[in-house]
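Appendix B. One record, verbatim.
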Amino acid sequence: YYSTVRKASAVERLEFLGVLGGILPDRRLCTHCRALHLVDPKDLPVTGYDKYYKPCPAPEISWSRHRLNPYYAIAHRHVQLAIKYTRLEDVHQRYRASILQRFTTSFPSFHSMRLKFTVEPVVVNGRFILMTTFDFHEAAAPLSFTTLSRVSVRFCQHLPIDEPTNPESPLLAAIRFAFKVADGRSGLHQEVHSCDRCPTDYLIKIQGRRAISYVWQDLGSGTSPIVPYWRSHILDYKENNQFNGTEFCYEHGSVRYMYYSSGTRS
């Protein structure tokens, strides 16, 4: 057995360790040092401005962590472990619940508005789905297309809002559509939009003095941090940003549908 492992190539050994990491309840494969580690329940997604916890001293690969904004960041290993313990059902369920814990924070002054930011992750059919909500409330200035189009947030790496000078921005088009729906120019239909370069669905609603943006992202099945379902969400200043990125083929609207198929309320 051990002689076979020693003779295996680096890729074969890594695949073997990956299989063990998926089976052994108290172990996980570390993609930084390429070894099995004991699971550490203190290792959780970053919420707010908490210091990022690194359970392995090896240098971290830049594309191993998904940070949509300064308030929440999740590592690929968290996706793997949440899916693994959902599958195992009776092992480390408290740790699983901690990884999937709902997170909310509020900002009383955010670009002349108030903002409530919420993240709600779920595991559905072996996939990690993340729903993010940006709930803007009118404050110092009236809620309008102008005030909303200038806020500095990202729905994904390809869809930042703060680009009011870009007439081709699909996100600004979605904001315009939401205001048309709110004032009756487009009926009552709420349209779900999608990114063309990552599995992200989003919906914007204008309700009186509030603008609520819902974002649903499929972070994949946790198999590897190099698969497109994960890598397409990771910022890369050369290859994956608002100007660059490979077209991603998936059924638009399916991520939102998958999220609510888990029984989560709509």
